[in-house]
């Protein structure tokens, strides 16, 4: 049984004690627990001591998480991550009241420091500059800009602000706001990957490396990605678990070395079957570790029409898809032969071509015709059934077909993907042709519920928008 106990030696050092059971010799001697203390004493400022002593009492779960972290081993404390300048826009005013508490040993003015509850990639970059820079150019960090450009739920105002806060923004991120040091509850708490922080940075590292242990092991497991990448529109976690890779992970995950040092996690040595992180982020062979999940992608599979990442209008990647495909292939050939890998991409490219040409192109053409002939009204979106049908053709079934093929999950590529594409395509095309032949306008849902969200693009992302 282990107990982590934090105590300050001379007000300037941390003592972590581990209590172990030991058996005393002798046939008649009863087992007696004895204490063996492992002392790690390092200097730290008194303000940091105050943080630890207070949070150890006020938030024991938070403290225990930190005490088990690599940060604690390196003597990185609350103070190192949360300390702020007095002039920073995200300084917590309520926290200052903690230094007026007579019941706390450290609740005194001499320990008073400005802190921010929000730790941002800019803060993390002080120790992790490369990771922060890579993350900043990724689709994760810029997802708020992407969805405001292309998502009718936002730019057509088809859901409420609270629906967005509870749903969309939980993963995509909020635009943090505060009033006199008090964070707006519509924007906080939030750890979305594209959160816009008050210091100007984008994202939240704790989306994947959860507070306050910030574990590399957690981020390497597919469940970390499955928090957001799931459901009818982007079921990557379900697709992965169906695939052979996921099957191997399920069978052997307890044998994986999840705690290998960053940059050293090696296929065939530390793990058998890959996870999301090992394919999209971790290093392998000559492919270097990266926190830019846009790397290694040769297709933009989530787009309505599949395009190369550099051609994705909402956020064109500054990459060459051939170079990025070779990076991903280098990851693949750690376990697979070259012919296997090359032929997989031949099949994926054919799937993309068939989706684009056979399903998306003709549906998009007749959909545009409905607008041109004013049989559909583009003032709003989703308030006419044909808009819903077209949206789900690419956003649901079309994505599943393409992503299932990319990640080798045949049930998702066929039964959840192309099979459903056929059904929706046929009913959509039949109704569209009937509307055109009879010059019939679509029925408009008169009481579409909760279409009350703001359609004003955020100035912080779109300063020139009106």
| Rg, nearest Å | 27 Å
User: Main β-sheet, in a few words?
Assistant: 2 strands, antiparallel
Could you give the order of strands across the largest sheet? Answer: 1-2
Instruction: Please bin the fraction of helical residues.
Output: 40-55%
N-to-C CA distance: 61 Å
Structural class: mainly alpha
Mean pLDDT: 90
Query: Low-confidence parts, pLDDT < 50 over ≥5 residues?
Result: 1-41
DSSP summary, beta strand count: 6
Shape: globular
Order of helices and strands: EEEEHHHHHHHHHEEHHHHHHHHH
- Number of discrete helical segments: 18
Strand content: under 5%
Features:
two-stranded antiparallel ribbon; globular; mainly alpha; 18 helices; 466 residues
Structure notes:
This protein is globular. Strands 1-2 form a two-stranded antiparallel ribbon. The termini are far apart. Helix 1 crosses helix 2, helix 12 crosses helix 13 and helix 17 packs antiparallel against helix 18. The chain contains 18 helices and six strands. With 466 residues, it is mostly helical. Among the domains are: 112 residues, no CATH class; 94 residues, no CATH class; 98 residues.
């Amino acid at each position: 049984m282990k107990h982590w106990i934090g105590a300050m030696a001379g007000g300037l050092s941390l003592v972590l004690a581990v209590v172990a059971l030991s058996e005393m010799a002798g046939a008649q001697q009863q087992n007696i627990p004895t204490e063996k203390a492992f002392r790690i004493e390092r200097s730290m400022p008194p303000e940091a001591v105050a943080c630890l002593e207070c949070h150890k009492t006020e938030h024991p779960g938070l403290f225990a998480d930190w005490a088990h972290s690599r940060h604690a081993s390196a003597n990185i404390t609350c103070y190192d991550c949360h300390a702020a300048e007095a002039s920073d826009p995200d300084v917590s005013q309520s926290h200052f009241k903690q230094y007026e508490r007579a019941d706390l040993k450290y609740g005194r003015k001499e320990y008073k420091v400005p802190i921010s509850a929000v730790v941002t990639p800019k803060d993390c970059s002080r120790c992790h500059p490369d990771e922060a820079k890579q993350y900043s150019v990724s689709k994760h960090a810029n997802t708020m800009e992407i969805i405001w450009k292309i998502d009718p739920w936002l730019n057509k105002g088809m859901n409420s602000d609270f629906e967005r806060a509870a749903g969309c923004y939980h993963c995509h991120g909020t635009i943090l706001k505060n009033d006199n040091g008090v964070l707006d509850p519509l924007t906080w708490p939030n750890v979305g990957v594209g959160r816009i922080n008050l210091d100007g940075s984008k994202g939240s590292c704790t989306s994947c490396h959860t507070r306050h242990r910030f574990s590399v092991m957690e981020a390497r497991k597919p469940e970390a990605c499955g928090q957001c990448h799931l459901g009818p529109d982007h079921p990557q976690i379900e697709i992965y678990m169906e695939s052979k890779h996921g099957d191997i992970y399920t069978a052997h995950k307890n044998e994986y070395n999840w705690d290998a040092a960053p940059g050293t996690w090696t296929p065939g040595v530390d793990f058998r079957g890959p996870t999301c992180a090992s394919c999209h982020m971790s290093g392998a062979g000559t492919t270097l570790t990266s926190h830019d999940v846009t790397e290694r992608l040769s297709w933009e599979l989530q787009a309505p029409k599949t395009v190369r990442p550099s051609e994705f209008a909402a956020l064109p990647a500054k990459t060459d898809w051939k170079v990025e495909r070779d990076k991903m292939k280098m990851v693949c050939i750690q376990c697979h032969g070259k012919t296997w890998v090359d032929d997989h991409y031949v099949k994926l490219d054919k799937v993309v071509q068939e989706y684009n040409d056979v399903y998306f192109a003709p549906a998009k053409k007749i959909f545009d015709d409905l607008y041109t002939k004013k049989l559909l009204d583009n003032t709003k979106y989703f308030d006419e059934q044909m808009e819903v049908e077209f949206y789900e053709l690419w956003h649901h079934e079309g994505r599943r077909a393409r992503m299932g093929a990319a990640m080798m999950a045949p049930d998702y590529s066929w039964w959840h993907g192309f099979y459903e594409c056929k059904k929706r395509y046929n009913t959509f095309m039949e109704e569209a042709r009937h509307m055109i032949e009879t010059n019939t306008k679509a029925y408009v849902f008169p009481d579409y519920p909760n279409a009350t969200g703001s359609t004003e693009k955020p100035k912080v992302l779109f300063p020139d928008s009106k």
